[in-house]
Specification:
The complex is a heterodimer of chains A (37) and B (349). Chain A has 37 residues and is mainly α. Chain A has one helix at 8-29. The longest helix of chain A has 22 residues, at 8-29. Chain B is mostly helical. Chain B has one domain (78-347). Helices cover 80% and strands 0% of the residues of chain B. Chain B has 17 helices and no strands. In chain B, helix 8 packs across helix 17, helix 9 runs antiparallel to helix 10 (203-213) and helix 9 packs antiparallel against helix 17 (319-347). The A-B interface holds A 7-13, 15-17, 19-20, 23-24, 27, 31-37 and B 76-77, 80-81, 83-85, 264-266, 268-269, 273, 276, 283, 285-286, 288-290, 292-293, 295-296.
């Protein structure tokens, strides 16, 4: 059986969840770090 | 792994074009300061789009350009990522207020779009399903709404590619005209942001138009557009039922599952992040990081808007749908702006 493909929307939600988790984890080590623009 | 590597050249190109736009803006500012010149401040958004347009329309036909295509197509993922991350800059009360205003406007816009596009379509002798696609595209959310409706009403692929070309070209036009009109009328950020979010049809172009005006207007344009996107399922369902009743499309089985399937899930991500920001789950530094990451994601998106816009492809679709699109969109944009100005006077946006 073919695996169902995840839509772009779900990918975006998954990627942002990973980003938020990483930022949270990183800020536990470097509390004042901000990602530059 | 091979598939992932296939995305790489295009993503690198998005990064180069986007960052190139940022560098051009910066260089002009530095040059102006060094030579004591007052140069017009043209945002990186426009530079990135123009740079992308130039590259894709000069080299787009070349066979070597195909290597970039899978990666360029990821600009939509970057757009969704940018929108979800931007949720961190809204508290839920703002989302409800501006989102509510947007939803009311969407309902009015939809009514206007259906009436106007149907009338114009008949005048210009366009096929009825193409008219449906144009009405959905101009009232809800451009390309994704058209694709969703195409499947639901069994429309011709040719009709949907024409409708997409019309929506994209009017969007490209809005990028240049909306900010100019906004400055001419001295519109505030909230009114302009809502206008861009409600008047420009494709999400990427709507976000870019808002960002071209100001950072604050860009933020509000994203919110208005997200609210508008959330209605996609209902409108597609309405059209599917209409064409099924006429016996020209498949019957819809379970309506709730149809709605869920068509619902843009990134809206849930946007609401979740906004909820987390509202309960102060993030500190100041974390919020800054999220906002900056959202800007980077949009930078890739704007590069993609330029790189995906192929002027030659658009010209191939024939002139009539464009005239209908342009007239319809022009009237809808003007009426939406009128409604927003009045709403602003009454309740203050």
């Amino acid at each position: 059986m073919k695996k169902p493909k995840l839509s772009i929307d779900w990918w975006a939600v998954i990627i942002v969840s990973a980003i938020v988790a990483s930022i949270w984890a990183f800020s536990q080590i470097y509390p004042y770090f901000t990602f530059p623009w | 792994m091979k598939k992932l590597l296939g995305f790489l050249p295009g993503i690198v190109l998005l990064a180069i074009v986007g960052y190139g736009g940022k560098l051009i803006e910066h260089s002009i500012t530095v040059y102006g300061k060094a030579h004591h010149l007052t140069l017009p401040n043209i945002e990186y958004v426009l530079w990135a789009i123009l740079l992308g347009l130039l590259i894709s329309n000069v080299f787009g036909e070349g066979r070597f350009f195909r290597i970039f295509e899978p990666g360029i197509a990821t600009y939509e993922t970057f757009l969704k990522i940018g929108i979800i991350l931007l949720g961190s800059r809204f508290i839920l009360a703002d989302v409800l207020k501006l989102g509510g205003v947007s939803l009311v406007m969407v309902a009015i816009e939809l009514g206007m779009a259906i009436l106007l596009m149907t009338w114009l379509g008949k005048k210009f002798g366009l096929p009825p399903k193409l008219v449906s696609l144009l009405a959905v595209g101009s009232s809800v959310c451009g390309v994704s709404a058209i694709i969703a409706t195409e499947g639901a009403i069994d429309a011709d692929e040719k009709d949907s590619s024409t409708a997409i070309a019309v929506i994209l070209s009017t969007g490209a036009l809005a990028l240049f005209t909306f900010p100019w009109i906004g400055h001419l009328l001295h519109l505030g950020n909230a009114v302009f942001g809502l206008w861009a979010g409600l008047g420009v049809d494709n999400t990427a172009e709507a976000v870019a138009t808002g960002a071209l005006y100001s950072d604050a207007a860009g933020k509000i344009a994203v919110l208005a557009k997200t609210a508008r996107n959330a209605t996609i399922g209902f409108i597609v369902l309405g059209y599917a039922l209409y064409w099924a009743k006429k016996g020209l499309a498949k019957e819809i089985g379970n309506k709730a599952s149809f709605l869920w399937k068509k619902f843009p899930k990134f809206v849930l991500g946007f609401l979740a992040i906004s909820l987390l920001a509202s309960v102060q789950a993030f500190d100041h530094a974390q919020l800054m990081s999220l906002a900056n990451l959202s800007r980077w994601a949009f930078l890739f998106t704007f590069a993609g808007v330029g790189l995906k816009t192929n002027v030659r492809e658009m010209l191939k679709q024939g002139i009539q749908p464009f005239v209908v699109g342009l007239l319809g969109e022009g009237v809808i944009a003007a009426m939406t702006l009128g409604l927003l100005v009045v709403t602003n006077k009454i309740i203050g946006l």
